[in-house]
Amino acid sequence: MVKESAVSEGLQWRINMQDGSSKILVSESVPRTRVCGALQGFFMGFLFNFWGFILKAWNIGLNDPKKFIHCIKVGLALCLVSVFYYMRPLYRGVGGNAMWAVMTVVAVFEYTVGATLCKCVNRVIGTCLAGALGVGVHWIASQSGKRFEPIILQISVFLLAAVATFSRFIPSVKARFDYGAMIFILTFSLVSVSGYRVEKLFELAHHRLSTIMIGTSICIITTMLFFPVWAGSELHNLIGNNTEKLADSLDGCLADYFGNDENADNTKKEAPKKILLSYKCVLGSKVTEESLANFARWEPAHGGFNFGHPWKEYLKVGASLRSCAYCIEALNGSINSDAKAPDVFKAHFSKFCLRLSSSSSLVIKELSTVINTMTKSTKIYLIVQEMNNAVEELQNALKSFSEQSTASLTVPELEESDNGAGDTTASPALVQIVPLVTVASLLMEIAARTERIAEAVNSLANKAEFKVKSDEKSMQLQNPKVLTR
Amino acid sequence: MVKESAVSEGLQWRINMQDGSSKILVSESVPRTRVCGALQGFFMGFLFNFWGFILKAWNIGLNDPKKFIHCIKVGLALCLVSVFYYMRPLYRGVGGNAMWAVMTVVAVFEYTVGATLCKCVNRVIGTCLAGALGVGVHWIASQSGKRFEPIILQISVFLLAAVATFSRFIPSVKARFDYGAMIFILTFSLVSVSGYRVEKLFELAHHRLSTIMIGTSICIITTMLFFPVWAGSELHNLIGNNTEKLADSLDGCLADYFGNDENADNTKKEAPKKILLSYKCVLGSKVTEESLANFARWEPAHGGFNFGHPWKEYLKVGASLRSCAYCIEALNGSINSDAKAPDVFKAHFSKFCLRLSSSSSLVIKELSTVINTMTKSTKIYLIVQEMNNAVEELQNALKSFSEQSTASLTVPELEESDNGAGDTTASPALVQIVPLVTVASLLMEIAARTERIAEAVNSLANKAEFKVKSDEKSMQLQNPKVLTR
Fold first, then answer.
1. DSSP SS3 for B281
2. Interchain contact B69–A (C-beta under 8 A)
3. Confidence class of residue A10 from pLDDT cuts 50, 70 and 90?
4. Where are the beta strands (DSSP E) in B245-398?
5. What ipTM does the predicted assembly reach?
6. Most buried residue, A22, A324, B186, B448, by most Cβ within 10 Å?
């Protein structure tokens, strides 16, 4: 037996022995203030952590207020649907099945209009199909006598559930009808299982369908009328932003590498570091793009997008952006590698490399403007041409560098700029300029991939019939070859 | 008015004019056999397409028979749960609420054990929490009179639904409790809404919970006892296979580039082309890896994996694999670019490049063996050392090449191998070997990233306590530095 005795100075644990005597277990006195302090500390720590979590969550919402609006919309839709319960005349109509309407709203309401519509259509089609099949199978089973009825029902549930589950593994079905297949299994099981008990099977099916229709209607109205978030617009903005980020990253990357010579302004060096890694967003956006494109197909015309907007073209643009981002990743890797090129060589090549990178990023930025403004660019032909000229110049620079180095073993420009480094320039060992050559080569590869982005954006602009600025129309007539290479 | 008159020879379209006369619209006779033929053709085409779809779906199953087994398991679980309906004594126990058990099975049964467990726990916790809150709110509302009851209930539904929906946007909540938050909203809405009508609120909550428990138990038993698919094992195999694919890709890439000189066997050139692009699987596997790691945490000990197996380490290995795959992508791009290095230079460098690539791929293959067999490798120290030697050799080759070219303007080896190309070798223009230098530089970068994979795998092996082969233990004692660099 253990007994706790609270003395005014502290706590004592006393064990009562079998012979009647008692022994103090903990003689050390723990002042009450210390216990209180520990408890207070624990409580404050918990509060502090919880407050941090709340602040973090709040910032998520502040960064994208559409998320707050979505939450309000979900609450609103649920309040609307619960009206069917609270208002007596409506309650008499749908009865206890109003539950299905609540369930539909919770299960079907998604962040974007497209996703909600997709789920609504899936739910209705899945329910109808499974309901009809369930009633049919139930009729067949009821004709075959009391003994075989459960067996036939069991086998049908087993077979159809297995087939519908398997269909969810097929990519084309999974992309569009994954939720529908689940609802099919659910409804078929419910109808054929409860059909065995509930006599009024048709009434059940009818009630379930009508409540689901009420739920889906409320969802569609709420999602489309109050600050709608269109999957199509989200995809459009995502691709536009990713294009911009890629251009910024490329600029940041090169500024980081050649920055020591060109931009002496060290105070501005921290900001680009953050931008430099923004290409990583492009690397991991494939899944988001695909799901948005998938949902966008279900959406009606909105903003500048018609019903048959070529959403698949956005995926192609996204793929070409990613292909360019892989190269920027490799470029970033070779820039940060241990092997460093001597500054004299870097100075020689920096203007060519920087010219190529800035013209590439100019092309990418122009493409992001094309996407963001949904206006065809006529300037793009000129700046792609300029980028190709920059590629040629860099190639010529490499050529002349090797010719000069093999002819005189010194580079005139380098001698002028750096007289002390005469020994180094006397033998421009290949191994020393390997990092530079790699950067140059990757830049050329990036330029080639930038052209592929331009082609993808051009194809998108043609298929989506982006408008042409009126003052630029005449220019385009003079340059009919605009991006038709 | 249009009238169709079927004559024995064919079909005629006749328009009745306003003045009473009639005009034959289509005078061309369409023989009945042709209509039948067209219908038959359409029907056959449909059947052909449908058959193709079925075959494709069947192949998906054949390639991964676990998908067939999963379908059978879903059917089985549904049959088991419907037993509650068909057997009268059980039916009396749970009554009409057995529907919830069916619903639970359909909603909760997932492909992997981890995903099923995660959803089961989420469903139970969400239901309990929301049920308790719902009953509490309902009691408060009922105390405040008939007039305020629906208003309080509406406000509580709105607020809690909004907060729970917002929590789904927080990454840490989304990763673990996304489904739970949805179930929370659903249950709370149902309880507080139907609490207004159904008098026996506690009985409803109790029934719902017990049927959900039945459903989740059936799911857990079915998913764990019949051919379980563990998310942990899937993740382990995925990472192991991806590692292997990366090694094959690297080999294929270099064989493709230097193949003309080294492997004259053209018949074997098609097979590597397919393997060459297998690194693309690694590029896009991030989302799968993350969700598998997320589900694996819920799984009990199975196979060689304990409950606290360091699943996060697999994500680190996956990230390092992807980082290497980006480089292989860039390498592949520069290999397929228009700029080609002259064969004489290629022949000079091929042996160094091939040595480095094969030693890198050897390291990656050894790492895949480490993962697949869950056995620490002692050889890895030696082959990483060998890879680093190969890097040094390649660097020396680049150095000696530039020294030779600046000293004598000819490369002795090249003169021997290619006497006719004397003019070309006289001036080994830098621009000509740019593609080669890029390939060499990227190979060195790949070697650096391979070492990072080795570090990640080593950290995994240490944390997961992979076993050491008994005959290799003594070797490791001699080389205590094994991968502790």
1. helix
2. no
3. very low
4. 375-376
5. 0.80
6. A324
pTM of the model: 0.80
> Around Cβ A112, how many Cβ atoms within 10 Å?
25
Neighbours of B282 (CB within 10 A): 25
Angle CA B456–B459–B462, to nearest 5? 150
DSSP B230: -
Q: Pick from A96, A101, A138, A139: which is nearest to A123 by CA?
A: A101
Query: Cβ distance B150 to B192 under 8 Å?
Result: no
Q: Which of B136, B189, B129 is nearest to B158 (CA)?
A: B189
Whether residue B118 is predicted with pLDDT greater than 90 in this model: the reply is yes
Best B50, B94, B106, B168 residue to mutate vs chain A (most A CBs within 10 Å): B106
In Å, what is the CA distance from A56 to each residue of A51, A59, B287?
9, 5, 23
The answer to whether B450 and B391 are in contact (CB under 8 A) is no
Q: How many CB pairs under 8 A join A and B?
A: 255
SS (H, E, C) B3-23: EEEECCCCEEEEEECCCCCEE
Per-domain boundaries in chain A: 67-225, 231-403+427-478
Is-contact B317 B453, C-beta < 8 A?
A: yes
Taking only the tens place, the pLDDT of each residue in B64-78 is 888 899 999 999 999
Of A153, A197, A330, the CB nearest to B445: A330
**What are residue A15's DSSP bridge partners?**
A2, A23
Å from B184 to nearest chain A CA? 10
Q: Is A49 in the B-facing interface, judged by CB distances under 8 Å?
A: no
Question: What's the rounded Cα separation, in Å, for the pair A342 and A346?
Answer: 6
Q: Which CATH architecture has domain B231-403+427-478?
A: Up-down Bundle (1.20)
pLDDT digits (tens, 9 = 90+) for B430-449: 667 777 888 888 888 899 89
Pairing, β B11-16 against β B2-6: antiparallel
Helix, strand, coil distribution of chain A in percent, nearest 5:
75, 5, 20
Do residues A213 and A123 touch, judged by C-beta distance below 8 A? no
- What are the C-alpha distances in Å from B431 to residues A137, A392, B252, B434? 75, 11, 26, 5
Measuring CA to CA, which residue among A196, A223, A194 is closest to residue A208?
A194
User: Is residue B184 within 8 Å of residue A90, measured between CB atoms?
Assistant: no
Provide the shortest C-alpha distance from residue B388 to chain A (in Å).
14
Tell me, yes or no, if B96 comes closer than 8 A to chain A by beta carbon: yes
For residue A60, list chain B residues with Cβ-Cβ distance below 8 A.
169-170
B167-206: per-residue pLDDT in tens?
A: 999 988 888 899 999 999 998 888 877 765 555 677 777 7
Residues of chain B in contact with residue A107, where contact means CB-CB under 8 angstroms, are 182, 186
pLDDT digits (tens, 9 = 90+) for B329-375: 888 888 877 667 677 777 777 888 888 888 998 999 999 988 888 88
Closest chain A residue to B174 measured between Cα atoms? A57
Q: How far is CA A138 from CA A141, A151, A186, A347, in A?
A: 5, 11, 15, 83
Give the separation between CA A9 and CA A19, rounded to whole angstroms: 28
Q: What is the DSSP string of A119-166?
A: HHHHHHHHHHHHHHHHHHHHHHHHHTHHHHHHHHHHHHHHHHHHHHHH
Question: Which stretches of B168-230 are DSSP H helices?
Answer: 171-194, 201-225
Closest-CA distance, B441 to chain A, in angstroms, reads 6
The answer to whether B422 faces chain A, any CB pair under 8 Å, is no
